[in-house]
Amino acid sequence: MKVWLADIGTFTLVFAGVGATAAGVETLGVAFAFGSAVAVMVAAVGPISPAHFNPAVTVVFFALRRIRLVDIFLCWSAACRCNVRPARAESWLRSAPRERLFRNYEAGA
Hints:
Elements: H1 2-22, H2 27-45, H3 55-63, H4 69-95, H5 98-101
């Protein structure tokens, strides 16, 4: 369960940041996207999961003996898996014709 929540959190973080960067948002907007994604995901899954969306945080928790070695590998494998998925989703969204993405919405409706 905790690894699944780490998957969702990492996906959200990377998707928001990469999406903001790919959309041509300025530096402050990208920082806001990353910060908002972290704040939302920590608030959403923090009480259930350790919410280590940054591998450096996992290392610090291990150094403080608040996480087991096995959990480090689980968190890092989730992070590696979930860094590829948002990139694929962004690529798919950018390559899809607008008509396919918004076919159920009429212009001006």
